[in-house]
Amino acid sequence: MRRRVVWRGFPVITVVTVLLGCLALVVAVRLPSPTQQREVDAADRAAGRYAKALDADLVAFGESTRDDVADHLDDLDQALALVRRHVTAVPRISTRGTTAYGRSHSLEYRAAKGRRSLALRPFVQLVRVLEGAVQTQGFIRAGTHAIEINPLELLDGTPVLTGEPLRELVVPEYKAARTKLQRHPAPSGSALLGQDLLTYVSGVIATTRDGADDIDAGRPFRFDFGTRPQDLQRRLAQLSASVVSSVLQAVDETAGFGGGQKP
């Protein structure tokens, strides 16, 4: 009985020994050489240096971004150009002093490669918000210009003995304003405001032409817009405030960089 037990156990011990030997061989094969380890260490150090530099750049970037937006709330196109420039200027991790093997086997280096895009995510979102805000500001300017046209100022010093001054000085100004409005479509959610502005301008053009005909026929005419310009201006002001609010909210999302919000 003892022989049979010993005889049956022998193959098991042999198999275990072989497996351990294979495992040791695999581990030995996978361990990097001293040279390779130095390459990995170099990539790790490069990643560490990059992380510190990136953090410093983001601090400066965050502060500059808030200043740029605050200084150009009335002309966000300039703020957009500055923020885009800042995003482009944030460096990517360098390969200097590293090898392909070190970079591919360094967990820290591989993580650092994605760190930039992750850190810039709130700033990229700010760029998108600014792009929409710039388009909306273009629409607001076009609308404001249209309702601020003053026919009496256009006719200042011009004798209105016939309807020609209205046709030559007033109508072209409103037609240009309408074209400008058509080139700056209303943003999402403001289609009704855009249509009301176009309706207002087209109505003034028609009224001015009718007035010119009245003057030619010897009938009295005067411009009377009622409260429509004020109503439209109020709605444009509300839209402008909404745009500024959305931009400032996007700026707040970057407050994790640059030491928080400025008082």
Give a topology summary.
Layout: H1 2-30, H2 34-71, H3 76-89, H4 100-105, H5 107-119, H6 121-148, H7 151-154, H8 164-183, H9 191-216, H10 228-252
Helix pairs in contact: 2-3, 2-5, 3-6, 6-8, 6-9, 6-10, 8-9, 9-10
Structure description:
- The protein has 263 residues and is mainly α.
- The chain folds into two domains: 38-119; 130-252, no CATH class.
- The protein contains ten helices and no strands.
- It has helices spanning 2-30, 34-71, 76-89, 100-105, 107-119, 121-148, 151-154, 164-183, 191-216, 228-252.
- Helix 6 (121-148) runs antiparallel to helix 10 (228-252).
- The relative contact order is 0.11.
- The model is unreliable at 1-10, 18-29 and 258-263 (pLDDT under 50).
Please supply descriptive tags for the structure shown above.
mainly alpha; single chain; disordered N terminus; disordered C terminus
Describe the structure concisely.
This protein is mainly α and 263 residues long.
Uncertain regions: pLDDT < 50 for 5+ in a row? Answer: 1-10, 18-29, 258-263
Radius of gyration, in angstroms, nearest whole number = 36 Å
Q: Give helix % range.
A: over 70%
Query: How many angstroms does the end-to-end distance come to?
Result: 90 Å
Topology, number of strands? 0
Report the structural category.
mainly alpha
Q: Choose one word for the global shape.
A: rod-shaped
Q: State the helix count.
A: 10
Average per-residue pLDDT, rounded, comes to 87
Largest sheet features = none
Order of helices and strands: HHHHHHHHHH
Counting structural domains, the number is 2
- Our estimate of the beta-strand percent is under 5%
